[in-house]
Fold:
Amino acid sequence: LKFALGAVWGKDLPSGEVLSSLKSRVLSAFHDLVNRKDPSWLGWMDLPDQEVDGVMEAADWLRGFDAFVQVGIGGSALGNLMLHQALIGDIEMKTAKPCFYLADNPDPMKLQEMWKDLEGRRFALVGVSKSGSTAETTSQFMWFLDKLKGSYDSVLLITDPEGGIFRKFVNETGCRSLPLRSDVGGRYSVLSPVGLLSAAALGIPVDQLLEGARAMRDGLISQGDFDRNPAMRLAACHLYHEISQRPMAVMMPYSSRLERFSEWFAQLWGESLGKEGRGTTPIRALGAIDQHSQVQLYMEGPDDKFFTIIDVAFPQDVAIPQASSEALKSLDYLAGKGLGEMLRKEAMATASALAGAGRPVMWIQMERLDPRSLGELIFFYQFTTAITGLAMGVNPFDQPGVEQGKRYTYGLMGRPGFEEEAERAERAFDV
Ligand code: PA5
Structure:
């Protein structure tokens, strides 16, 4: 990955006292992270070194089915979609073998549609939940288990190695399982079996993903110089723009294959940093589509956003042919050029236009989109998010707001022990 190391065009980091205070907070966050001051949350930093034999064996097993359904939500789902889209592609995924289905939102219509496709086929059920109790996941797990008519041989769970309902189920039934280390939070788990299993079953070389992540980790950790460490600089930029009344962070890759990367980023960023009245709201955008939708607002609306544009080099381009009729002659300026070339020029156009309008822009360039470079990008953002949170003085690894929502759902659905939450949630509707 190449970064525009100045990090911000249009509006650079400030100088003087503001910069030195930002620098010292970011440097201290960096040291806390690399010295593992609080190791109980930092298992994600070791994931690039993990042995993947168990994952590969389970992936082989999944390939023996016509299809597999993953039930999971949030950090137990978004990373899978991101990896598949980026490294296989949406259209190829439609004919992938085995077929992959994701049951995240417990939408009955979606589930029924899925079942129409699945009925009569041999499918495996992969349940993913770190806590092993999230209602959206456990409810759909029960639904598919019922369809499997108690065939525990077709079930695999990825969950905490010791606690939770899913772990109890593994112990009781002896079904397959893979551990999700307790020191890895959901949104930091894409490089654990959570993200790797479905990727490996679909043929993604997960060793290369981990290799990229390892290279990025080692590079970032060994670079203690603030000015030469892109994660530190980017964390400082985000902090600076947060305190400068820019409460939004727009992530705008210029490749359809990275649309879901923005979704994944949005969870990582929002859930890690949105705490104690702090944090910036992640906005998912896609180039060039949002040039024709959001860029008007980005250019001339309120100056309240920090932009990241990801420019991707395409391995093969598609050439635009010569005009075939007199009416199209004026389009000959496009002839012989590539669509990918045009998309990259559009990324440049948006970045320069935004910068020209005085809006802060960070530019990331990917020389290729392959497992290795995606592993780099993933680790880069996990690391940057962690530093940003630590420098803000919040815990970037917990999610009390999410847990509160889970408890209210348990209460409203009648789970014993959550009666008070049910009452509180219902009270809000007493109007
Ligand atoms: O990042 C997180 O911890 C959350 O978003 C979880 O991934 C999400 O709530 C699902 O939780 P679980 O994997 O425990 O079912």
Summary: The longest strand covers residues 305-312. Residues 5-10 have pLDDT under 50 and may be disordered.
